[in-house]
Amino acid sequence: MSAELIDALVARADGGLAVEPIRLPALGPGDVRVRIRAAGVCHSDLSMVNGTLAATFPLVLGHEAAGVVAEVGADVDGVVPGDHVVLNWAPPCRQCWHCRHGEPWLCAASGRPCAPGGTTADGEQLQVTLGLGALATEVVVPANAVIGVPAELGFEQAALLGCAVLTGVGAVGNTAGVRPGQSVLVVGLGGVGLSVLIAARRAGAGPIIAVDRSAGKEKLALASGATHFLPADDALSGQIRALTEGRGVDHAFECVGRSATIRTAWRATRRGGTVTVVGMGAKDDLLSLSALEIFHSARTLRSSVYGSADPDQEVPQLARAVRDGSLDLRPLITHRVGLDGAPEAFRRMERGEGARTVVVFDA
């Protein structure tokens, strides 16, 4: 165990969030130590804090981050100190059935804690969100949990590639296969939902209809590529059909993770269309569809796990697209804070305000 204390955002079982000193685990031969330079505040972390997803506490939050390699273990040869990297919370093992059959996003080992989480200053064992715990000044992770990116790419945008952007862009391109001219609905305009809008515009879709419970999201939606913004209310289904010649949309993306909003997306989709669930919800939130409507509608209902992507291949591709200007992520970031501002960022997310908050660390 490292003797040096670093700062991290720690969640407690009573819902408390605070920046605390922690000790990282010792660097193993296959590990990498990364100094975090930017980290996004993601809804998946909030889902662990509020009980939507099961979690063990105390828990270091954060899994969407970028930084600089500070140290590598004796057996690491893919990166060297000074490299700029994006963290990968779901590194595929490359050995299980899914990996061997071209589905690394469904890897049997991905998303599990991949390294000891370290301890609090007084020796209590820590857990880390999705194997990373990246809302911290430093992390120690296996070498396969980092992906190199160009040093010219800003850390704030690089951080978002590791979760929100890869998830949203992949859902549009890999999972749904949206084509030019197809109509798209996006329900829920957090970081992932806005990334879906950006990707839908990039794919040439239209109309692109954005829906959120917060009217304050309209400006963000239009900046991200939506052609229309609609508030989430009882008239929604009729309004969407009015914009699609009475049919409903070709593709609906549910980016909330609730049965009610999945149902909303389902009702707004045309016969033969596709509903892609991107939001991660609670296991006891059940969705009910009748056998007749499943048959009659001929719709496809599926999920998109981590954008159906191979992060090792697609994060560098996204990085190049950001650098050449073909992928504009500027609308995604509405707040920049230091680590001590992260607790308020979670409260702001819970209120449905803004898009991504990025925690920026000093060099």
Question: How would you explain this protein's 3D organization?
Answer:
This protein is of the alpha/beta class. It has two domains: 176 residues, Quinone Oxidoreductase, Chain A, domain 1 (Alpha-Beta Complex), CATH 3.90.180; 142 residues, NAD(P)-binding Rossmann-like Domain (Rossmann fold, 3-Layer(aba) Sandwich), CATH 3.40.50. The strands form three sheets. Strands 3, 5, 6, 9, 10, 17 and 18 form a seven-stranded mixed sheet that branches. Strand 12, helix 5 and strand 13 form a beta-alpha-beta unit. The longest helix has 22 residues. The radius of gyration is 20 Å and the shape is globular.
Largest sheet entry? 7 strands, mixed
User: How much β-strand is present in the residues?
Assistant: 25-35%
| Principal-axis shape | globular
CATH classification class of the largest domain? Alpha Beta
The CATH architecture of the largest domain: Alpha-Beta Complex
Number of domains: 2
- Count of DSSP-assigned helices: 10
- Rg, Å, rounded: 20 Å
User: Which structural category fits the helices and strands?
Assistant: alpha/beta
Which superfamily, in CATH terms, is the homologous superfamily of the largest domain? Medium-chain alcohol dehydrogenases, catalytic domain
| Total strands | 18
Q: What percent of the residues sit in helical stretches (DSSP H or I)?
A: 25-40%
Cα distance spanning the termini = 25 Å
Briefly note the CATH topology name of the largest domain: Quinone Oxidoreductase, Chain A, domain 1
